[in-house]
């Protein structure tokens, strides 16, 4: 029985609306007993928030199935030296960092951690760039530049800090294979027995390819059939939507 890692936006939901058939797919997977991780690069919502979001659209999933870039960032930092972090992000990110034993501070931090936040400002940019220039390690939850309607995302918030400090962050989220490995560790799974389902060739499918997973592209989101030939790698399977998937 295969482990399944499944993206949210473009696979299960459009904004907060159900993509037809995705509810039946997820409920079938849960009934079959496949170990399931619903994985998102978005670090602003907790597992409980995501459970409520999908529940409102008609997909009932246990909270324990959700894994976010905030959780993966906390997992990554547990493997590093240092316990103090300056954080640009929302409560879900700081919650995961507190749980991992980190002190959130703007006094000599070991790390500068950037996630998504609407309260981004000049003072945050200034402090982050100064700390990084003085030796703090630069970590970002995900490289996405924008979300729906061109709303600024983590990669865009990192850009001015990169330009000022001259240093690039380590991006934890997709397409980094780190988040996939972290999600697999979360369920004690192994790459050779895992399939990843996503709608984006350059994030979901690339992350799965780099982590050695079987990959399924659904064309209900970002990437379309015509986009496959633009990349040097290929998904193992292509379906119009999650409801059509018949290989797991």
From TrEMBL:
Claim: Magnesium is one of the keywords in the record: yes
SUPFAM superfamilies tied to this protein: HAD-like (SSF56784)
One GO molecular-function entry: 5'-nucleotidase activity
Catalytic activity, EC: 3.1.3.5
Membrane-crossing residue ranges in chain numbering: none
Reported cofactor(s): Mg(2+)
Reactions performed catalytically: a ribonucleoside 5'-phosphate + H2O = a ribonucleoside + phosphate
Keywords per UniProt: Carbohydrate metabolism, Hydrolase, Magnesium, Metal-binding
Keyword Hydrolase included in the entry's annotation: yes
Stated family: Belongs to the HAD-like hydrolase superfamily. NagD family.
Record protein name field: Ribonucleotide monophosphatase NagD
Job of this protein: Catalyzes the dephosphorylation of an unusually broad range of substrate including deoxyribo- and ribonucleoside tri-, di-, and monophosphates, as well as polyphosphate and glucose-1-P (Glu1P).
NCBIfam families listed in its UniProt record: HAD-SF-IIA (TIGR01460), PRK10444.1 (NF007762)
Originating species: Shewanella gaetbuli
GO cellular component terms, semicolon-separated: cytoplasm
């Amino acid at each position: 029985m295969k482990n399944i890692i499944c993206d949210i936006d473009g696979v299960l939901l459009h904004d907060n609306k159900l993509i037809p058939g995705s509810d039946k797919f997820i409920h079938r997977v849960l009934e079959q007993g496949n170990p399931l991780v619903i994985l998102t690069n978005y670090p602003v919502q907790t597992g409980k928030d995501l459970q409520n979001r999908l529940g409102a659209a008609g997909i009932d999933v246990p909270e324990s199935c959700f894994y976010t870039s905030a959780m993966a960032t906390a997992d990554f930092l547990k493997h590093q030296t240092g316990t103090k972090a300056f954080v640009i992000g929302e409560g879900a990110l700081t919650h995961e960092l507190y749980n991992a034993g980190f002190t959130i501070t703007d006094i000599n931090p070991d790390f500068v951690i950037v996630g998504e936040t609407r309260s981004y400002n000049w003072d945050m940019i200034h402090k982050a760039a100064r700390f990084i220039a003085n030796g703090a390690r630069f970590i970002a939850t995900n490289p996405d530049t924008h979300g729906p309607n061109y709303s600024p995302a983590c990669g865009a918030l990192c850009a001015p800090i990169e330009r000022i400090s001259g240093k690039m962050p380590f991006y934890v989220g997709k397409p980094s294979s780190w988040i996939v490995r972290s999600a697999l560790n979360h369920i004690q799974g192994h790459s050779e027995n895992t399939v990843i389902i996503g709608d984006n060739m350059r994030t979901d499918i690339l992350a799965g390819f780099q982590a050695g997973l079987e990959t399924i592209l659904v064309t209900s989101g970002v990437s379309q059939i015509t986009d496959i030939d633009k990349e040097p790698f290929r998904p193992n399977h292509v379906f119009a939507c999650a409801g059509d998937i018949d290989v797991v």
